[in-house]
Amino acid sequence: MRYLDFASSTSNTCDVQWERLVVAIDTSGSMDFDDWKPTRLEAAKEATAALIEQKRRIAPEDEVAIVTFDNEAQVICPPVAVNSGAQLLSQTIGTIQSGGCTNMRAALTVSQGLLQASGRRSFLDRWLPDASIKNEERRLRIILLTDGGHNEGRSPKSIATKLKNADVCIDCIGIGGDPSAVDEDLLKTIASKHADGKTPCYVFIGDKCELIQKFEQLAGRIAR
Length: 224
Description:
The N and C termini lie close together (about 5 Å). Helix content is about 30%, strand content about 20%. By secondary structure, it is α/β, with parallel strands linked by helices. The strands form two sheets. It has a six-stranded mixed beta sheet, with helices on both faces. It has a two-stranded antiparallel sheet with strand order 1-8. The longest helix has 19 residues, at about 40-60. Helix 1 (about 40-60) packs antiparallel against helix 2 (about 80-95), helix 1 runs parallel beside helix 6 (about 210-220) and helix 3 (about 105-115) runs parallel beside helix 4. The protein has helices spanning about 40-60, 80-95, 105-115, 155-165, 185-190, 210-220; strands at about 1-5, 20-25, 65-70, 75-80, 140-145, 170-175, 200-205, 220-224. The protein contains six helices and eight strands. It has a single domain (about 1-5, about 15-120, about 140-224), classed as 3-Layer(aba) Sandwich (Rossmann fold), CATH 3.40.50.410.
């Protein structure tokens, strides 16, 4: 998986697809820790706002949705086109609050529901054995950000596998003071693979500025 640099004149737009992206943000109680100033959650909100601003600049026709998850998952903002919904997305980010445990399965399940209505074909049509149906030129993607491990509800592994089998790209971001605080093995299992087919699309980030830079990179579309 390769993210295109839209600022470069060498980018080949024939290799990219219109995108629907779900940003799933951990809002468990530990996201209020102040080792990242002012808090981890505020850093995550700032990074998400930076992603939206970058998409508004480089791919405004793409759609973005925001999901938060603790004990359960909630749709904070349904998919909206960035060119017309940037203000709504920004206002929505400001309302996010923390509390509870960490249910990654709920985050992926709710994100799946938001991706199902993408395009003229349904999400499940991707499994139908009908060679006459041409795949839509669009990309479905989830960015899952957490500062801990899955500790509420059933394992997220099966739903992650189902999503990836349906060509949904999953990027996992661990944040906090130390990689040992997150379940890196699980996040690497949930994440999609890079172009080499081996390296998971997972990274641990221990600094707010680095997180913002990463989200700005993730605003780019994926080349096939």
